[in-house]
Every structure is written in structure tokens, then in C-alpha cells.
Amino acid sequence: MTSTVTSAAVTVADIPHLDPVPAFAPLAERSPQGIAQIRLPSGHTALHMTRYADVHKVLTDPASGRTETNVEGGPSFLPTVMPKELLLNLDAPFHARVRGFVAADYSAAGVERLRPVLDRVLDEGIERLRSAASPDLFTDLVDRIPVTVNCHFLGVPLADVPYFRPSARIVQIASHENVPDLVEHFYRVYGYVQDLVTGTRAAVPGGLIDRFRSDRDRAEPPLDDAELTGIFFGSLLGADQNVVSVLTKSLYTLLAAPALWRRLAEEPGIAPRLAEELIRLIPLGTISAFPRIAGRDLDTSQGVVPAGSVVYPDAFAANRDPEAFPDPLTIDPDRVPAKRHLQFGYGMHHCMGAALARMEIVAVLTRLAREFPDLALAIEPAEVPWDDGTVLRRPTSLPVRW
């Protein structure tokens, strides 16, 4: 019996393994204010925000910060602390200084200059698919695109990819099973980026690393090596592993529901809005945000969040709030949402690589639909193997035919 979805109306529940098992445990007892609670892997209790308006309020509140969670013994989904200089760990006013330094290069206009590189890498991937005896959409194309484009963007030598990338994957899986091994891989990647920033390793001239090192005094005060390392460490992981995850799951979803793939093949112009719909519905890993500490009392639809509370703004749940997205579980290429989804975050911690991710995902969907209108999975969707981690969760193979 086939598990492939062939009807025109497709929901996320129709796609095997698409939704993860949450990385937290719901608690039966509510807070004294009547707010739902969860238990984090760190053992801390957090207030669970799931409605769009409430999650949006937490994400945009400058007093609800990340810094206090990234400490030894702090409330976290991760098994260890991260360097404090990473953008996702910075709060106001420090975040604005660093974010302003990178904003232009990571804007939609800034990443557009990477379009020729993206097109070339896509050409190479399509040629590999066509010549493969057993074509695999993941290994022959998807897994190679973000890392190649990002290396060009940052000025990271492509010859170094085998050195840092296996460790980057382990870092994003963020398994609690072997923390010393995780820490070793973390600092292998972090040390590699640090070497590029300090000049111990040679960066490719003209890339962001080379430019930012020489232009660091645009910030006031000038960015130091640790801050630059924080910027590029986040980019080396996020603009590669995160994009691979969302892109792979997007293609898996479309191929597991051939009605959606046929629609895209017939109308490649729908790729931008179809990509947004898929991004809205597909979480990166088993979490959709990092905890915050409320810096002041916040009024929410569930009750008052007291200052000092640990809060989990669940963007995954908010993106499926029927008040914000009617019929939220349906994958609707024609949806014209009244709200902007929260998959890339919102406010201060909005993902700096969002424009690059969108450009790559839309380009791949558009090109594949034109080149392979009859593309299909060569195995049942339920048989597709997966990586399953805290931040990284995705298929590891997509055998295809056409």
C-alpha cells in the first residue's frame, strides 16, 4: 500500500515524519497566573507561549532577553553553553551594534550578488542528477548548494569543507548523549572560524571575513576578534546546515505529496509563496526558538507573564495558530496570509540569513520544477531516512526518479 499523498488538499499530517517529537515535556500544572508550562531538557520550568499574538509579543519585547539563559545551569534546550558573542545570545543594546554592522550584506539586495554563484552550483547539481545511476536529490544537489554558496559569500576555502562540515552537523544535532564529544566538535568549528578571523588561516580575499576584518571600525566601538568570530560562526552553521534542513524537508514534502509537486511543475511562478508556506509549517529541528527571560511583566492572552519568568515563545505553534493562519495545517500554495510567519524569528533576533535562505530555496524549487516536472521519490516517503537532532532534523537521503 502506498503512503504517497495524491489528493489536491494536503496537510502536514499527511506527510510521514514531517513533524518532530517536541524537545520539551508538557506539564499538567499551570503557573499561578494560569499559563501553560513545559519542562525544558535542562530541567527548568518555562511558560509556554503558543498563540501567535503572544509569541510575537515575547519575540519583539526588547526586555525579554537571551543572555541570562546562556549560562552554566541556565534554562536551555542545549546540553552546553555557547559563546556569549553569538548574535542569538546578545540582547539590547549590544545586539543592535553588531546586527547593524552586517545588515546591508545580509539584506535581500546584499545577497542578490550571490545569484550567479547559486545558478552555477545549481547547474552542476542538475548535471550530477542527470548522470547518476541512482540519483539522490539530497547528496547530488541539495546538500552541496548552501555550503558552496556560503563559502563563496564568507570567503571560506572550499578545500576546508571536509574539515569543518562534519563537525558542524554534529553541533546542530546537539545531542545530549555525549556532551564531551559535542563540545569537542563545537570548538573544532569555532576554532576554525577564529583562525580565519585572526589570520591564522587564510580567508579568500574579497569575502565577508576579509572585508569585515578590515572594516571593523564601522562599528562603534570597533568589533573585536571575538565578536567577528561570533558573527561568522553563526553564519557558517546557519547559512549551511539550517538552509539544507529546510530545503530538504520542503522538497521531501512536495515529493511525498505529488499533487503539490505537479502544481509547482505546472506553475513554477508559485515557488516564492509556496516556499513561504513550507517555511511556515516546517520547524528546523525539535525546537522553534530559544527560551527568554522576561525582563518585565507581560500581558498575554493566557495571563500575565511575571518579570523574571523563563518563557518559551513557541514559533512552531504560533505559525499554526488558526487565528493568524486559517486552516493552518493545510499546505496552501495560494495562501495570502494576513500575518508574517515567525519561522525566522521576529524583532531583534530575526534570522540575519533569512534573505539568503529564501533566495536559495525559491531558486531550487523553481529550477527543479522546470528541469524535472515528473520528479518523484524512488522509495516510499515513510522509508526515507532521517537525522533527528535538536536544531538539525532532516532526511539524509532523497532517492528520486523521473
From TrEMBL:
<dbReference type="InterPro" id="IPR017972">
    <property type="entry name" value="Cyt_P450_CS"/>
</dbReference>
<protein>
    <submittedName>
        <fullName>Cytochrome</fullName>
    </submittedName>
</protein>
<keyword id="KW-0479">Metal-binding</keyword>
<keyword id="KW-0349">Heme</keyword>
<keyword id="KW-0408">Iron</keyword>
<comment type="similarity">
    <text>Belongs to the cytochrome P450 family.</text>
</comment>
<keyword id="KW-0503">Monooxygenase</keyword>
<dbReference type="GO" id="GO:0016705">
    <property type="term" value="F:oxidoreductase activity, acting on paired donors, with incorporation or reduction of molecular oxygen"/>
</dbReference>
<dbReference type="GO" id="GO:0020037">
    <property type="term" value="F:heme binding"/>
</dbReference>
<dbReference type="InterPro" id="IPR001128">
    <property type="entry name" value="Cyt_P450"/>
</dbReference>
<dbReference type="InterPro" id="IPR002397">
    <property type="entry name" value="Cyt_P450_B"/>
</dbReference>
<dbReference type="GO" id="GO:0005506">
    <property type="term" value="F:iron ion binding"/>
</dbReference>
<dbReference type="GO" id="GO:0004497">
    <property type="term" value="F:monooxygenase activity"/>
</dbReference>
<dbReference type="InterPro" id="IPR036396">
    <property type="entry name" value="Cyt_P450_sf"/>
</dbReference>
<keyword id="KW-0560">Oxidoreductase</keyword>
<dbReference type="Pfam" id="PF00067">
    <property type="entry name" value="p450"/>
</dbReference>
